């Protein structure tokens, strides 16, 4: 059973990467549950997604983060074992125990706590983490509307061509996730919006495909 999001509120942006345990990651909801919760919370706030993202956009513009960071729907992928983290390397993401210095956060809870990571190098650099002040203001906006299912993710340096999105699907490995550029198709079934760029009222950056989306054995 997923842990309520408000139980993560004790974390601070100053905590280290090692503070997120596998059990905490495994307690995050699956994509379909997180998406449904977001819709319910928006309905309670009497806001559409566009209206809500319009409340967040000025914060990204103020900090100059529009091209660096996006809003993401917080959810887990695969169940982790203790000592593992979900780490992306190019297009592939998978659990690993690797603690190399070139593995840095790329997704954060609203409190600034990282929960997914990426391998970086000269070819695949990543922006430094958002500031503590940004996370405080981001959390303030979410709390004002009682939204607790959103976090922050880094935007890939390579811009998407017009008419394309990023799509996450099951990889070949037992616990592997692949992210690929695909042409936009509004009728794709079993997909959920999972991240939004804070331009034009929240432009969709990434979709997640379910059921082949790190479901493993705990889909309910």
- Given as residue ranges, the uncertain stretches (5+ residues, pLDDT < 50) are 1-18, 210-220
Beta strand count: 10
Strand numbers in spatial order across the main sheet? 1-6-4-5-2-3-8-7-10-9
**In what range is the share of β-strand residues?**
25-35%
Structural class: alpha+beta
Helical proportion, percent range: 10-25%
Query: Could you describe the largest sheet, including whether it forms a barrel?
Result: 10 strands, mixed, barrel
Order of helices and strands: HHHEEEEEHEEEEE
The separation of the N and C termini measures 8 Å
- What is the residue-mean pLDDT, rounded to a whole number? 78
Topology:
Elements: H1 22-26, H2 31-44, H3 49-63, E1 69-73, E2 85-89, E3 92-96, E4 103-108, E5 114-119, H4 132-144, E6 150-154, E7 164-170, E8 177-183, E9 191-197, E10 203-209
Parallel strand pairs: 2-5, 7-10
Antiparallel strand pairs: 1-6, 1-9, 2-3, 3-8, 4-5, 4-6, 7-8, 9-10
Account of the 3D structure:
- The chain is of the alpha+beta class and 220 residues long.
- It has helices at residues 22-26, 31-44, 49-63, 132-144; strands at residues 69-73, 85-89, 92-96, 103-108, 114-119, 150-154, 164-170, 177-183, 191-197, 203-209.
- It has a ten-stranded mixed barrel.
- A hairpin with a 5-residue loop joins strand 4 (103-108) and strand 5.
- Helix 3 packs antiparallel against helix 4.
- The protein is globular, with a radius of gyration of 16 Å.
- It starts with 21 loop residues before the first helix and ends in an 11-residue tail after the last strand.
- The model is unreliable at 1-18 and 210-220 (pLDDT under 50).
